[in-house]
Hints:
Blueprint: E1 3-7, E2 10-13, E3 18-25, E4 34-39, E5 46-51, E6 58-60, E7 68-73, E8 78-83, E9 92-98, E10 115-116, E11 120-125
Parallel strand pairs: 2-11
Antiparallel strand pairs: 1-3, 3-8, 4-5, 4-9, 5-6, 7-8, 9-10, 9-11
Amino acid sequence: QVQLVESGGGLVQAGGSLRLSCAASGRTFSSYPMAWFRQAPGKEREFVAVISWSGDNTYYADSMKGRFTISRDNAKNTVYLQMNSLKPEDTAVYYCAADGTGWVGIRSSLEAYSYWGQGTQVTVSS
């Protein structure tokens, strides 16, 4: 079992930055690919970024490339999402997720992730 707790959300002006953190419990954290998803009001949850268990491989949704950076510190059982050049359309609840299925690669589909945090709100004002 893995429990995930996100933090770092808040209100920021367009063009600003935020760094989200996701703290995980459980000794197997370092073996899981980790991802960030987000859900805006009235919209479906969408993929943001994923990082392999080692941190060597990452993958981003097209609209986040060049602005967002996912990273992890396995010694601290934490995954991060650095968000720069934020836009009002980035406003959403951001969730971290762990792929605990044992899949070797990294995946962007919602269904691949079996553990989810409660989410943290990010609001970008224009």
